Amino acid sequence: MHPITVEHVCELVGGTICGDVMVAATVDGCVIDSRQVQRGDVFIALPGTQIHGVEFSAAALSDGADVVIVDESAAHMCRTPHIKVADAQVALAQLGWHNRQTSDALVIAVTGSVGKTTARRMIAATLESVHTGIQSPRNFNNHLGVPLSLLELQCGDEFAVIEVGSSAPGEVEMLASIVRPEFAVVTSVSPAHLDGLKSLQAVQHEKQALVASLSSDGVAILNADDPLVAEMQTSAPGRVVTFGTAETAEVRATAVNMTDDALVLTVDGDEYTVRACGRHNVTNALAAIAVGLEVGLAPEQINAGLSTYESEPGRCCPLQIGSWTVIDDTYNSNPAAVHAAIRTAEEFRHCRHRVLVLNDMMDLGEQAADLHYGMGAALASSKLDHIAVTGDFAGDVVEGFLACGGALNRISCFASLTLLTTMLDCLLCDGDLVLVKGSRATRMEQVVESLRRLACTDAADRRAA
Question: For residues 188 and 344, what is the distance between their CA atoms, to the nearest angstrom?
Answer without folding.
Answer: 18
